[in-house]
Amino acid sequence: MKKTTILHIIMCLVFPAIFNVCFFLISKAENRTATVWISYGFIHFAYLMFVCSPFFTRKGKSSSIFGRSVYAISTVYFIVVLTAGIIMMSIPAKNDVVTWVSQLVALGIYLVVLILHLIANEHTADAEEARQPQIDFIKSASSKVKLMVDSASDKQTNRKIGQVYDLISTSPIKTDSSAAQIESSVLSEIDLMRGHLDASENAAVVSCAQRIISQLNERNQLLKSSH
Questions:
Q1: Whole-angstrom Cα distance, residue 174 to residue 226?
Q2: Residue 27 CB: number of other CB atoms within 10 A?
Q3: For residue 12, which of 53, 60, 63 has the smallest C-alpha distance?
Q4: Nearest to 53 by CA among 110, 104, 106
Q5: Pair 138, 187: CB distance under 8 Å
Q6: What is the mean pLDDT for each group of 10 consecutive residues in the chain (227 residues)?
């Protein structure tokens, strides 16, 4: 087990350890009514939900953002339950129903807000995953061609490479499966153009650039008609 994991576990145990020591030292056995034990149980449950918040967060690019929001919801719930619990322990209600109802209402609100938030996070994460391949193609293609701009030994070749870069940069980011084969071919042609450029084969570079331009125009037209 990693040292950081052990330290994290110890940190999580600090509150229940201190709380329980104080609870059993301060409260007298004869005063520990059902109301007190109900509050005691809900306080520990709320803390457990707070500690387990990281496990509710879906792993992904925005997991840190999702995690902070889930933490915030669980923290508010824990503070509310802890405050209400301490008050109820200090002034035990004669009717246990009051304690049950107040704690269950707080729990119900917490779970509804948490679940709605987790559903929203799932939708956001799904959208990000679906969009990532769309971003990757333009990002990958443009970054590769950008390195070739003005690298050729003659102006005509550089101009053609510049045309390729301009077309990629202005091409729509959004894509779909129908354009996947063309995009794969474009990336292969870009790699091939890079090889010809390194070998100073300007005519071959221009030929590759022209094919890339044709394929990009085909892709863009396909996407335009499909949307």
A1: 11
A2: 14
A3: 53
A4: 110
A5: no
A6: 80 91 84 87 95 78 70 93 90 76 94 90 71 71 89 88 91 80 90 91 92 92 79
